[in-house]
Specification:
The structure is a homodimer of 144-residue chains.
Chain A lengths: L6 H7 L6 H12 L3 E2 H11 L5 H14 L3 E3 L7 E3 L6 E6 L5 E5 L17 E12 L1 H5 L5
Parallel strand pairs in A: 4-6
Antiparallel strand pairs in A: 1-3, 2-3, 4-5
Chain A binds a DNA duplex (30 and 30 nucleotides) through helix 2 and helix 4.
DNA sequence: CCATTTTCTTGACTCGTTCCAGAAAGCGCG
DNA sequence: CGCGCTTTCTGGAACGAGTCAAGAAAATGG
């Protein structure tokens, strides 16, 4: 669907050097949405067994700064990454098992971006996290 | 304004034992909105110089679980606590200096609570974080 | 193919938070 | 008012995600 699976091209387009670790990280984030850093390290090492964790951390930072990847971190979770960027979507997080799913906000455009009183802040983004229970955990008797 | 500054009463009402550390922590959170754990430890030790950090961590967890205090943790920040609970307000966070301010959502009631497609999740809360720059940082030339 | 600049490897280290065992304090009851 | 049970607190070790730093390796432009 996206012509964007040409990762080297994506990197170049963002003005970044094309390195094997970066390509692999970009690929891992694309194929494992909402994965944490450790999972990404694992996925990357399937291709490049010798990458250091530092290379992955660096790549994730660089990619995030370049806007090729988005970092999310719900309260109580470690950092997670996803490849859907610039499309103003949000997340539902399961309180019980931590599962994360994408949600397109009911309001088609930027949701709630107009705070009633912004205290003088210049707001450029509204991040919404819905908390609840995923289908499986909703069925299972609450154990917490 | 709130008859709720009787902290021991608040604790008892929540079915919790009244201990000096808990009362002090509750007081610290009330007087230092959005403070992180370290600041709270400092504030608590102004009254009780000998409290262990663990007592503060335990109290914060207990108070959070009891709903007397709310924990927030914007991406990239450590845990912070506030005493406004159950009133459905949100936060603006400064990307530059990390300052946090309260915001009442434009929609008077639960904002965006109806996700367009909730993937089968049972949603009970929508948490909104607005990102931008606080008044001071908006004036200062962007240095990041 | 070379030089320059950026990125990666390795390994130590920081910092917020949690775990643990024993001592202390709160609460219900007589 | 004091006893005993249970919860909480103290002190200190431990943990884990993430960062820092120095030198080796690889990308890009010529």
């Amino acid at each position: 669907m996206t012509p964007a699976d040409d990762f080297p091209q994506l990197l170049r387009g963002a003005g970044l050097r094309v390195t094997r670790p970066r390509v692999a990280v970009l690929g891992a984030v694309h194929s494992h949405p909402h994965a944490d850093t450790e999972s990404i390290i694992g996925a990357v090492r399937a291709d490049l067994p010798e990458v250091s964790h530092q290379a992955v951390y660096d790549s994730l930072h660089t990619l995030t700064a370049a806007g090729l990847v988005r970092r999310i971190q719900p309260t109580g979770s470690v950092a997670r990454y996803e490849s859907r960027v610039e499309d103003n979507h949000h997340h539902v997080v399961c309180r019980s098992c931590g599962a994360i799913a994408d949600v397109d906000c009911a309001v088609g455009h930027a949701p709630c971006l107009t705070a009633s009183d912004d205290s003088g802040f210049v707001v450029d983004e509204a991040e919404v996290i819905y908390w609840g229970r995923c289908p499986s955990c909703a069925i299972a008797p609450a154990r917490q």
